[in-house]
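Journal club prep — side note

Before the paper discussion, L.F. wants everyone to see what a predicted structure for a comparable chain looks like in token form. Sequence:
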Amino acid sequence: MAASSASGASPSFGDMLGVSNIIDDIRASDRVVDFELGAGERRKALIQRLKEQKAKEGVVVKDDVIESAVEQYEERRFTFTPMKSGANRLAATAYVRRGRYLRNTAIAAAVLVVGTVAYNVGYDQFVIKPREAAIAREAAAKEAAARELETALTVRLPAELKAAVSSATVAADRVSDVQAKADIDSRNTEALAAITARNVAGAETAIRQIGTIETSMRWKEQRVQQVAAKLAIQPSQLQAAYTSAKALAVAVSDNQAVTDIESRNTEGLGAIAAKNVEGAQQAIAAIGVIESHLRQVQAQKQLTGEAANFVADADASLSRYVNSGNPLDDGARTTLTRRLSLITEAAEDGDGQQMRQAMTSYKNLVTYVQNEAKIRIVNRRGVRSGVERDGTRWYLVVEALVGGKPVPVEVGNKEDGIAETVPYWGIRVSKRQYTKVLDDYSDDKIIDDDRAGTKPKGSLDVNWTLDAIDNQTITHW
């Protein structure tokens, strides 16, 4: 085998097998030698130890085979060869990674322990204890309900029933209602039966029904008292209404009204005797309606009489005025006559306010007619002295004075056709006349020539000193 190595020939199978065995021995021996020697000495010592080991085993190995095995071992020593898959590799990997696996296992175990403890604590706190508390409350509620039921059946309901029956019976006796008392007894029997049967709802219903009967009896009693009170005062009310209405009917000489009043009074007395409150009230109201109508008739007659007296006095006064030689033209006479007719019409309509306004207006008109009046342009603070309409019509504002004092005058409004009694009015003039007065006023805010015209005694016509146009007047601006 030494000759073949020197010549470069390939080693035999036996040599290769021997080399493999030697390499295995080298691995085992090398672990010891590594701790004892350096690199060069380690090689020599290793070869020597192998020879000794093989000699002990009775195996003769050539030196070149040992040298070859050592060389191959040295070449493979620092070369990493992965282990093949299998149980050994899995075990080796697990061993190498034992620290990580132990840490993860510890964490998982800790999490499991903590989770288990938390679950047990939470389940106890949020499931077991609430359930136990609910069961305890339910038991307590049932116990309380049982006590309440027992109290209701033995104490409360009997007491309430007794009080309700007593009070309702008293109320029924006050109005002598036999049927109500029978109903009370019936409801009392039902309530007692319900209590015996431990039927709280049935007993309470019967007690409430007894209370309803009592309320009905008290309302009936109140109605009886009200009727009695009304019946007590109705005779006097009927008598007062009858006396007042009959006296008024006699005063206005209305025989039919007297007959109607007597009839209604008889009906009222019959209703009172029969304790018919509504019938008596209707009779009293009917007499009141008759009296109200009679008062209207009386007021009408009073107004008519007052108006007739006023007209008669006015005619007599006007006749004395004329008979004394005072003037009175036809226009003034016609106007005065028309005013008197307005007084009569208002009286016939029963309008006392309108009648008295017409009387006042007539008196003012008579004063104005029977006296001479001066007409002047108004010239004072707060009242316009002139009015311009659309740049086409011009008016001066004037007033009438009797005895030096302003008096109201009835004036027709040209623009709307309505006549009114006013303290001053506007008379249409020419633009030249309007401008003249305006210039007079502009000098010192005073109209020096304020004369507008005169109204003679016994007339309503004005003799204008102004340049008046067709006696056209206005009352509003």
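L.F.'s comment for the group: Residues 275-370 form one domain. Keep this in mind when we get to the figures.
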